[in-house]
Fold:
Amino acid sequence: MCGIAGIIGGGASQEQLEAMLQAQAHRGPDDTGRYYKEAVCLGHNRLAIIDLSVAANQPFFSQDKRYTIVFNGEIYNYVELKAALETTYSFTTNSDTEVLLAAYQEWGEACLSKFNGMFAFAIWDAQEKQLFAARDRFGVKPFYYTMVDNTFYFASEIKSLFATGISKIPNEAVWASYFGYGSYGMPEETFWEDIHQLPGSHFLRYKEEALEIHRWYDFIEEVKKYDFDLSFETVKTRYLQLLDDSIKLRFRADVPVGFNVSGGLDSSGLLALVNRLDEGENIEAFTFYTGDDRYDELPWVEGLIAHTGNPLTKVKLEVNHLAQLAEEMTLQQDEPYGGVPTVAYGELFKEAKARGVKVLLDGQGMDEQWAGYDYYTKNSNSVIQGVSKSPFRTSVLSEEFFAKAEKPVYPTPFNDRVLNLQYRDLFYTKIPRALRFNDRVSMQASTELREPFLDYRLVEFAFAQPLAYKINNGVQKYVLRSIVSEYLSDSITYAPKRPLQTPQREWLAEDLKEWVTQTIAELKDSTWFDHEKLVEEWTTYVNGDQDSSFHIWQWINTSLLLKSNKNR
Structure:
């Protein structure tokens, strides 16, 4: 996992590329590479995971020098692809980067469907004077871009684009929708004007100042290919086989691999399954806690570890450090993020890196493929539209600003309410949001995060199964629970889903009251808010109306991000 950056066009400058690479240097401290030729600048920040030799550094060139690649991520099945390509290609490294480039030379854009991995990469074709770039199926790895004066810029992080001197202007429609509906934007959007994402499952071509974007992976069509009439036991067997293979692929690394564990079913079950395999023997586990027994999952984690025998490192988040850490995380994320748990994860990855663990696995993606959220069991149009009974406080927004908000409307391609919810969560809400948070959190510490449950084969197979295999007599994620029941106690296997919580509500109103008050006060000059009403709502919160702290965190996030904008 690394950072990529590039400038294509008459405005390309080496100085701008250097600024981009410096802005995202945390993504790849092991090497920084550059390619300059005429109106093309490509750069790479390397975090060495597979083939640690200098021969695998990037930018990486094809043997005929026609193609130059910068690549962020991992092609987990590179060993199998390499074997298929060796009859026509003579490899000089043991890297997945070279396999990716050779696959593109052999199959063109069709190579994408052969990859099992997480990736964002760009390939410059010196003969055709064309850039080809692509992002993995679920958008695990980021790709941001913009056009300025007929010049194309791209990078792994938004801050790298701004480092070139591009104007940092808030996209007010996205911000207003965030305040009004909790939306973090559609797959191609960001919170900043003229800064775009290449959506997951898509590729682009850029040639002669013309940009084309195409979808290369159609999840809906792929799901239709699956057999919907398998017996429950057959589904369990096949899913476990796929999961075992996914885990084995994600242990392919030339550096130590660790495990991020909470007390919930997904990560607990995954750790138990990992321990069955030779690759996962005695893997070191990491968890965070806050010291507040009302919220901490530490008792469940310690109970799990007593059962599995893995070494465990516990990372405590101290409230007296939170203000500084939150400000640092804001600069890292570039866009609003999910609150105190995200900050806590940041400390976990820092500790893993300090202990020499460069790769961590976690259980992201299980709720979406096996219908694990509570609202999957409820019949509500508001749920389908992604609108909950409002933790939001739109009364503090100016009328002019809130008028720019757009209620998010998501595709409903299936004749089934639950399938549409799962599809929304996989491609528009839950997964894109979590992957963005987690990418920045892990890369802040120069570590890599891998998600075995997000192997596309697992997601497709689980998605295609009948509802009774997902939710049975009120028990959600029924297949997964049935599988892991052989390896975990019933207290973990059949425990109800607990939202990942911290004392965020109490900390904001009590321990961090002065900091929050000051941070909100810095919004007084913003035309987005009615400052008097903002202060009224904050006072009401401090005085005990604390059913939700999401709106408070929204204001903190916004103040810190706008402040960073002023300080550029």
Summary: Confidence is low (pLDDT under 50) at residues 380-389. The first helix runs from residue 14 to 23.
